[in-house]
Amino acid sequence: WEDAALAQEAKRVRYAGVNTLAAWTPPEVIGASDAPYTATLHFGGAWATYVLPDPFDPRARLALREALRRYPVNFRDDPRCLGVFINNELHWGKHARGLVTSVLRY
User: Fold this and answer.
1) Residue 3: CA atoms inside 13 Å, Cβ hemisphere, count?
2) CA-CA distances (angstroms) from residue 21 to 14, 70, 76?
3) Closest CA to 82 of 32, 19, 26
4) Which pTM value belongs to this model?
5) Are 66 and 43 in contact (CB under 8 A)?
6) What is the sign, positive or negative, of the torsion defined by CA atoms of 18, 22, 24, 26?
7) In angstroms, rounded to a whole number, what is the distance separating the alpha carbons of residues 74 and 83?
8) What are the tens digits of pLDDT across the range 41-98?
9) For residue 30, how many other CB atoms are within 10 A of its CB?
10) Please, are residues 29 and 6 in contact by the beta-carbon 8 Å criterion?
């Protein structure tokens, strides 16, 4: 029944005129559809809980590689994958307002 449900969902997406699957689309729906999609990888740890993760921190590299390994859709060579978002709504620390203001002034 699951395969039939996924096939029906893919037909609904096409029928509704949806031309791209969003980052939060379940991996099973991505696999059943021929539509382009985006992926979202989540990584982190105690070292990145209340601060913006440093992309040059070796822990970030290891955590990102682990997130890639765990991701349920193999998008590496998939031409339907439009891109990959890294994390969502990252924490900017205790002084987010000042940080944003500084960035916008630059």
Assistant:
1) 0
2) 11, 20, 17
3) 19
4) 0.69
5) yes
6) positive
7) 12
8) 888 777 776 667 778 889 888 988 998 898 888 888 899 999 988 887 776 666 666 6
9) 22
10) yes
